[in-house]
Amino acid sequence: MATGRTHRPATRSRGIPEATVARLPLYLRALTALSERSVPTVSSEELATAAGVNSAKLRKDFSYLGSYGTRGVGYDVEYLVYQISRELGLTQDWPVAIVGIGNLGAALANYGGFASRGFRVAALIDADPAMAGTPVAGIPVQHTDDLDRIISDNGVSIGVITTPPGAAQQVCDRLVAAGVTSILNFAPTVLSVPEGVDVRKVDLSIELQILAFHEQRKAGEDASGTDEGAPPMRATPNGRKGPDGDMPAVMPA
Amino acid sequence: MATGRTHRPATRSRGIPEATVARLPLYLRALTALSERSVPTVSSEELATAAGVNSAKLRKDFSYLGSYGTRGVGYDVEYLVYQISRELGLTQDWPVAIVGIGNLGAALANYGGFASRGFRVAALIDADPAMAGTPVAGIPVQHTDDLDRIISDNGVSIGVITTPPGAAQQVCDRLVAAGVTSILNFAPTVLSVPEGVDVRKVDLSIELQILAFHEQRKAGEDASGTDEGAPPMRATPNGRKGPDGDMPAVMPA
DNA sequence: ACCTGTGAAGCCCTTCACAGCC
DNA sequence: GGCTGTGAAGGGCTTCACAGGT
Q1: Cα dihedral B72/B77/B78/B79 (nearest 10)
Q2: Which of A246 and B51 is assigned the larger pLDDT?
Q3: Fewer CB within 10 Å, N or C, chain B?
Q4: Domains of chain A with bracketed CATH
Q5: d(CA A152, CA A237)
Q6: Residues linked to residue A124 through DSSP beta bridges, in sequence order
Q7: Which positions in chain A touch B223 (Cβ < 8 Å)?
Q8: How many whole angstroms separate alpha carbon B52 and alpha carbon B138?
Q9: CA dist A229 → A101, B90, B237 (Å)
Q10: Which residues from the 229-248 window of protein chain A have CB within 7 angstroms of nucleic acid chain D?
Q11: Which nucleotide lies at the shortest CA–C1' distance from A55?
């Protein structure tokens, strides 16, 4: 989900649909597991199951990359691992900077899955001077004042923001100014970035709210009226209302 | 993204599109900020900007909930906050259990944004007996052996999995058996769940890989051939290949 | 004059179903 | 016989553009 200052129209980069790109990492993970078990080939059906998608979708996805399978046989595991890795840009090293070394930032710094795919935590940055020098996950925390230099020196183009929401936009601006063009944002804030900068967001609270929505549906299959707490009165009451759970109103007979 | 054992066909619950549900939390956050600044009403244009979407989409989204605006004026902030909260099921309390209290689990337990929206960390569960009793974020960690009882006693219906990937499916099965019907999975694993159970996943590594894909595009606008490392040989070489970066091949004149 | 609510159009993605190849 | 690759159909979401209400 790339949110930019200018709403880029879902830039389908070189013909590969965004939805497909988002699934390539899933395929790669499944393929890597097969590779470790020394499985030589895999069918679209098997691989699709392992990745949690259906096989038609998988074959369509792969068709955007090229004709990498063999009819009647399936896909060569090692070959596909290489092709997908290359397509995702994982054959090169990506230095990443994490800004905001609180609980979450520290957890990410310690996260093993990071390094496994060409990503390398090149720098940890925090605004608290007291943290400067203290190593987290073996990497010394550096102060925000040096952000520009740190980004430049390490050739960082991907930044991870794990600051409190209030600081996120400012940090984002500084990262972009220093040359970062991809941002992973964990702060619950809408970031504004210039065109050409990608932002993806991860928001725990949003995920839970979506789950709660569906959870509520499951529970309220028949028991409808769970009216707790007084709904605030409408500024301008009008005729049509929502489907249910609305203001007490006279039911039309 | 609800991944189930049976692929539910994007269950549009009571007519509200899934895409709309996923944006309601964004609107709610923007509205809450306006509410705290005591702004009484807001136009679709203003609110859309604050939420990082365009106004047509926002109006369409709200139209699924009902006619909650006033033409020529806009939307009443307090009223909308209530309606969206109710729609998302946030007018009730949601006890949540976190399983796997490593760095990430602890970070989530400490995360403030949790409690702000009706979610309450009711239990922390870990397989390490040494952790039992130790409080994290003021909540004592309990042992996995008691998982069933803990879930039941607290009426937990939403579980968060922050275990290592190897343990995720097993923990998931136990959560479901104990009555959990919504799962937020941070482990890089495809979870199998019975029908009726929702799974949403958050995967840092996948997000980074998607960013890397686009990042690679930006960098390689002209400089194409970044060939490092030998690509593994294909089991069965064939005719058609991928668009570029493939095996060295004779170019057709 | 202004802003919402919504049919209609367009786009993207998924799914089907089968031709093509091993 | 089996499995991939892909046109075509179908469905959902976004965007447009304007009718309708205040």
Answers
A1: 50
A2: B51
A3: C
A4: 13-88 (1.10.10.10), 94-205 (3.40.50.720)
A5: 57
A6: A98, A141
A7: none
A8: 35
A9: 39, 12, 68
A10: 236, 238-239
A11: C15
Q: Do A167 and A183 contact (CB within 8 A), yes or no?
A: no
A135: which strand partners?
A140
Q: Is A108 exposed, middle or buried (0-12, 13-18, 19+ CB in 10 A)?
A: buried
* A158 φ, ψ (degrees, to nearest 5): -120, 125
CA distance A39 to chain B (A): 13
Pull the structure tokens for residue A237.
């009451």
Round and report the angstrom distance from CA (A74) to C1' (C20): 15
Q: Is B4 annotated as a binding residue?
A: no
CB within 8 A of B216, min separation 6: which ones? A88, A89, A92
In contact, B126 and B198? CB cutoff 8 Å: no
pLDDT beyond 70 at B249: no
Please check the confidence at residue A12 and state whether its pLDDT lies above 60: no
- Structure-token pair, residue A126: 């925090």
Report residue B56 as tokens: 């047509």
DSSP chain A: ----SS------GGG--HHHHHHHHHHHHHHHHHHHTT--EE-HHHHHHHHTS-HHHHHHHHHHH---EETTTEEEHHHHHHHHHHHHTTTS-EEEEEE--SHHHHHHHH-GGGGGGTEEEEEEEES-GGGTT-EETTEEEEEGGGHHHHHHHHT--EEEE-S-HHHHHHHHHHHHHHT--EEEE-SSSPPP--TT-EEEE--HHHHHHHHHHHHHHHHTTS------SPPPPPSS--S---SSS-S--PPP-
C-alpha–C-alpha distance, residues A197 and A3, integer Å: 9
A103 is in an annotated binding site: yes
The string of pLDDT tens digits covering residues B70-99 is: 999 999 999 999 999 999 999 999 999 999
Strands B158-161 and B182-185 come out as parallel
Q: Could you say which of B40, B211, B218 has the minimum Cβ distance to residue A196?
A: B218
Spatial neighbors of B101 by CB under 8 A, at least 6 apart, are B109, B124, B125, B126, B131, B136, B141, B162
pLDDT tens for residues A200-243? 999 999 999 999 999 999 987 655 444 444 555 554 434 444 44
CA separation for the pair B70, A96 (Å, rounded): 47
